[in-house]
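Section 5: illustrative case.
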């Protein structure tokens, strides 16, 4: 992400004030300001009356189609938070680690967006298609800038599917990944390696729900953000409750 003024006003809305940003570990601060998706963070989000609520989330700075910085927040949910009202087919695809392209209506306007599941948070990550110019990104990569994409490959990439390319005697896989600063990823290896790396990235990020906690002393501590066992037990409990409700409905219908 290009160097530009830090949007302190946007950070302040989630309880990160200039002094908090300056006291962050340098590698954490630099990664956030460069547009990378943050690790888990427990932030003291102001809610008025000089009070705050402690909320675990991930954050990311991205540019909108007009080039303006936006601060996206992804709170942790016990189960997938389908705020975008995806259908069953779309949900199945993103649960498997895929990315979809879908049109959404906002007022009188319609926007095409990429949607991807943040498995660590169970939140839906999304970004306007217009902000992810994958053909331009490919031209910026020296080793593949001279490779012309076929119509089928362009259509696959545009729809959110990764594509495997031959670069000399090596294979490179490219695809939409909203966790990246530019929303696009270029990886050495074939399609199987892409899937393996995506799985490793999820496991590493998910391990122990470790992250950064904003303390009352305006400092940052690296510790467990969410109790993993309690979180997973809550998920299992929710699933059992759903199953019980289905059984109740069946019994009701059979009476």
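Designed sequence:
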């Amino acid at each position: 992400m290009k160097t530009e003024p830090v949007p302190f006003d946007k950070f302040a809305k989630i309880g990160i004030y200039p002094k908090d940003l300056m006291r962050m570990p340098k590698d954490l601060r630099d990664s956030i300001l460069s547009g990378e998706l943050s690790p888990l963070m427990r932030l003291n989000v102001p809610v008025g009356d000089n009070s705050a609520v402690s909320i675990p989330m991930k954050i990311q700075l991205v540019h909108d189609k007009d080039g303006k910085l936006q601060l996206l927040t992804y709170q942790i949910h016990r189960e997938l938070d389908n705020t975008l009202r995806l259908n069953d087919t779309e949900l199945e695809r993103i649960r498997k680690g895929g990315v979809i392209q879908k049109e959404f209506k906002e007022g009188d306007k319609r926007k095409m967006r990429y949607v991807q599941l943040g498995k660590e948070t169970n939140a839906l990550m999304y970004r306007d298609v217009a902000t992810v110019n994958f053909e331009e990104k490919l031209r910026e990569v020296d080793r593949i800038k001279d490779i012309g994409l076929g119509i089928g490959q362009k259509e696959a990439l545009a729809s959110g599917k990764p594509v495997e390319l031959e670069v000399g005697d090596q294979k490179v896989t490219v695809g939409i990944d909203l966790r990246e600063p530019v929303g696009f990823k270029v990886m050495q290896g074939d399609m199987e390696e892409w899937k393996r790396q995506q799985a490793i990235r999820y496991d590493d990020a998910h391990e122990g729900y470790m992250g950064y906690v904003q303390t009352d002393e305006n400092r940052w501590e690296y510790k467990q953000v969410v109790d993993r066992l309690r979180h997973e037990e809550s998920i299992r409990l929710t699933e059992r409750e759903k199953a019980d409700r289905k059984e109740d409905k069946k019994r009701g219908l059979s009476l």
